[in-house]
Amino acid sequence: MNAEKLRDLQIAPGEKRRPQRPFWTILIAVAALTIIAALMARPWDREESRVVKKDAQQLAASSSSAPPAAPSPPSAAPETTGGSVLTVSGYIINRERIEISPRFLGVVKWIGVKKGDPVTNGQVVVLLDDAEYQARVNEAIGRRENARATAAQAELDFARVSELLKTDIESKKSFDDARLQVDGSRAALKASEGAYELAQTYLDWCTIRSPIDGVVLEKLVDPNELVVPQSFGGGRGPSTALIAVADPKDLQVEIDVNEADLSKISLSQKCRVSPEAYPDKNYEGVVVEIAPEADRAKGTLQIKVQILKPDRFLTPQLSAKVEFLK
What we know:
Number of domains: 3
Largest sheet: 6 strands, antiparallel, barrel
Strand content: 15-25%
């Protein structure tokens, strides 16, 4: 009974072999799909080649129709713009800043200018209290007149003694005394005239005038202030100036040049000045001063460039660019 059941469960040898047709069917399908994909990819490659070729033809046509470009300069030695060899920034300054100070201790009675006012050479800008010096002048005038009268009296006495000496009425001693009296009175007259001139000079110094045509940079005092004649000028020490003036048509650019660039600069070298506030404006300049001593801490040397034709656009203490030309 059991043997019959085992025989029923056994598989016949012919049925154990798996059919091979589905495997070959799958292989053929994969190959077909690969061929179809290859055929579909080739037309896109040809289209891309045609686009690239078309673009190249258009570029060649445009290049042939455009004018030939100018050859670029060799990169080894480029030429600087405008023929400049060096460009440095500095500050516009007045060539001369004049601080007007009193010649003696005094009190300001009147000041007739303010900051920014134009002044002319010889214009009265400040008056000091002159009451004391007017009194000294009057005193000197009185002494001078007295000396003149004394001198005149001495000359008359001398003339009389000279006449009497001829008639032997007066002695030789009287004649000598009269002559010495004349000499003394003349000397006293000269001294009194000098005292008058000195008093008049001090009186004139109470009227302070501008020494140049220019502009008032600063008004440093007000009326009724006490001033003293102590001034060393500019920023070099104590200053008790009344006003500061400068010529706006006499301007320079002050710059500090690195020591490595000094070989490119020389006296009387032409320059081009451009204020930073107005970069479209250019002014002619020339090197007028090269400092005789360098700044060791900064490794620079101060250079001053004179602006030949300044105008109202140039303001002192503003920055400017200086191009040193070949």
